[in-house]
Amino acid sequence: MAITGLQAASAPADVASGCRIAAVEVFRLKLPYKAAVAFHSLTEAAGQYVILRLALADGTEGIAEAVCRAAQSGEDAATVAYQVEIWRLLGGAEPEPVPLTWIAHGNSREAQVAEAARMAQERGYRGMKLKTWRRTGEDVRMVAEVRKALPDTLIYVDGNGSYTESEARTILARVAESNVCFIEEPCTFPDPARQAALAAALPVALLGDQCCESLSAVNTLLRLNAVGAVSVKLRRTGLTESLKIIALCEAAGVPVVIGTDSESRIGALVRMHLRAAIPSLAPWPTETHFFDKLADDVFAGEFKFVDGTITPSDAPGFGATLDRRKLERYAF
Question: Are 194 and 160 in contact (CB under 8 A)?
Answer without folding.
Answer: no
